[in-house]
TrEMBL record:
Source organism: Perspicuibacillus lycopersici
Native organism taxonomy: Bacteria, Bacillati, Bacillota, Bacilli, Bacillales
Organism superkingdom: Bacteria
Protein name: ABC transporter substrate-binding protein
Family classification: Belongs to the bacterial solute-binding protein SsuA/TauA family.
Keyword Cell membrane: no
Amino acid sequence: MRKWLKMSVLILLSFVFIIGLTACNSSKESLQKVQIGEVTRSIFYAPQYVALEKGFFEEEGLDVELSTIPGGDKTMTALISDGIDIALVGSETSIYVNAQGTDDPIINFAQLTQTDGTFLVSREKIDNFTWDMLEDTTFLGQRKGGMPQMVGEFVLKKHGIDPHNDLELIQNIDFANISTSFASGTGDFVQLFEPQASVFEKEGIGYIVASFGTESGHVPYTVFMAKESFLNEQKEVAEKFTRAIYKAQQWVYEQSAEEVAKAIQPFFEDTELDIITSSVERYKSQNSFAENPILDNDEWDNLQNIMDEAGELPERLNYEDFVNTEFAEMVTE
């Protein structure tokens, strides 16, 4: 009798497990699949990881698959060739592509970050930094034509420094190798994203002395974009996607930096929690994370002014033609 009872319990448990697994798979299959390609993995994109980790996309009925595609050019190639549905990349890349002419324009529809995300790191500790200290030094900047480098030059000029004559500007090192080059002795100053800036400060390799984000003003620095055809054919998906991002943006500003850091830590397994926390705190304190997904006209103009100042603007593009705020406005009402 006891043996029969034990067998019955095992069969019942197996049945429950199978039913649960089937229901889970069925639920997963009912979600609309969406593929995102991010230009890099960065704490700067914290709200995106929050949306994934907290289930905000699933709440909207979306099964989002995230892949990292290093380099704006590669990310845009994946978008144009339908390798991904949505790209998270700097808005300048959409300008480069759209200026070449296309039957299916790339449309910016949900803003994720609204300032530059880089910091000026000095090899030596400086208690009272002023921008003129960069004169006659070696400055390890970012890739030519990318937003970090263009904003970097814009800020230097704003402080009366000619980046091509008043200092030695190095901008021919790949993004992935910039921090390594500085650590090995190249440059007196370097322009870095978090968490690398904080890691260097903790290890005594360099010291954060200024923020390019606070100096440059609001720009559509990193934006979710898609082909116009996708937004026209998948309006419901675009709205749901944007709503999930907005939920995450609100959550990031409602929670402490430590809570945000804990939420996104699975995406940065090799980075210590205190570094993630300090990085999030820096970005929150200067409002680098957009508080809502709306990309406004002033930000678009500021972006093109910075590109023009750097000599990288192929042509000025109309806000109305390449920015769609329909979904962002719907979810923030």
